[in-house]
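Run log // design_07
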């Protein structure tokens, strides 16, 4: 199983970034996919999840600014982040989730820094 996140970088407050996570080694379409972030000194937290049926959920902190999507033909999940704030800074990770079989896979993170 491999999950490779990319697209992070330095962006000014109010800017946008699009993260991608390319997956391989499992049946991508059967898994929910989540994006998590970990800020310095803080616990890792969920920022977006998209299930195999396409339904999505977001915490209030990013609702209306972040959009998760998936392309099952490309085995890739995306996170479009708009209106970025300094508090969005952190390492962003993607995770494949299949609760019914208790299978979870983490990818390597990509660093997002929001700063002027």
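design_07 sequence
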């Amino acid at each position: 199983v491999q999950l490779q996140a990319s697209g992070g970088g330095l962006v000014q407050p109010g800017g946008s970034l699009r993260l991608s996570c390319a997956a391989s080694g499992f049946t991508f379409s059967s898994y929910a996919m989540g994006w998590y972030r970990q800020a310095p000194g803080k616990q890792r937290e969920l920022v977006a999840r998209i299930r195999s049926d396409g339904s999505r959920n977001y915490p209030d902190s990013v609702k209306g600014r972040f959009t998760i999507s998936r392309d099952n033909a490309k085995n890739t999940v995306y996170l479009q982040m708009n209106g970025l704030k300094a508090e969005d800074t952190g390492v962003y990770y993607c995770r494949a989730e299949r609760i019914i079989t208790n299978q979870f896979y983490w990818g390597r993170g990509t660093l997002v820094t929001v700063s002027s």
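The two ends are 37 Å apart (CA to CA).
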